[in-house]
Structures are given as C-alpha cells and as structure tokens.
Amino acid sequence: MSESQRAHPYPLGEGDRARIKTPTGRPLTELTLEALRAGQAGADDLGIHADTLKEQAAIAQEAGFPQLAANLRRAAELTRIPNEVVLSVYEALRPYRVTQERLLALADELETRYDAIENAALIREAAQAYHESGLL
C-alpha cells in the first residue's frame, strides 16, 4: 500500500466520509435518507465534488494508474461545465459529426471559459487524430 493510500483510505467514501463533500459543499456524512425526506438535502447534493475527483486522481496516480488519474482529473474539470455544453462536446466527438475547426473551437471554449485545460488538450488530440484518420 502506498503512502497516499495509507493517508487517504480508498475508497474515499468508506474511509473518510466526513471529508468528502457533495457538489453543494455538504459533507457526505449529512447526506442521509432522513435529510432528503426533511428537505435538508436535495438533488443538487446527489453528485460528486471536483475535490473528491481530484483526490481520487492523486490516489490513482500514486498507485501507478496514470490513465485513470487523467480521466479523473478531466472529470473534475467537467463538474464546472454546464451539462448542455458537456453534451455538445460529447456529440462533437463522435466521428463525422463536425469539422476539425469546430473541435478546435470547442477546445478553446473549454479552456478559456471553463478553465478545463486537460479536457481541451484531449479534444485537440482527438481533432488531430480524427483528421489523420479521415474521421471528420
């Protein structure tokens, strides 16, 4: 077991529930059926906080899973992006849907508007690969 794993028990939701937050900042320990029934927690609490994803990424990196860590870091960035934008990016990344220029514009938008640097880099990489493979 690595130092990171000892310091941060995995899975995080079982090892240190008090430190984990919902997207609204509520501690995971307060997310109970009783709180939902009483209206003290709601649908906005039923998701994952970017900090939790970043912490999971750090654990994955330390454990020797760099691809998983990169995916989790990109997921953390996506928490800042409206769902409609995420869905438009998903649609654009399907082969033959848009031009290379449109993919590059989406990457620029994610980077400048939402500070989603890792997602922007992935889209630029996809745009180049799609161009080279004739998938645009």
Quick summary:
The chain is about 60% helix and about 0% strand.
Uncertain runs are none
Order of helices and strands: HHHHHHHH
Number of strands: 0
Helix coverage percent: 55-70%
Secondary structure: elements and pairs:
Blueprint: H1 3-7, H2 12-15, H3 33-37, H4 50-62, H5 66-78, H6 83-92, H7 100-114, H8 117-133
Helix pairs in contact: 4-5, 7-8
Plain-language structure description:
- The protein is mainly α and 136 residues long.
- The chain has eight helices and no strands.
- The N and C termini lie far apart (45 Å).
- α4 (50-62) runs antiparallel to α5 and α7 (100-114) packs antiparallel against α8.
- The mean pLDDT is 89.
What are the key terms here?
136 residues; mainly alpha; 8 helices; 60% helix
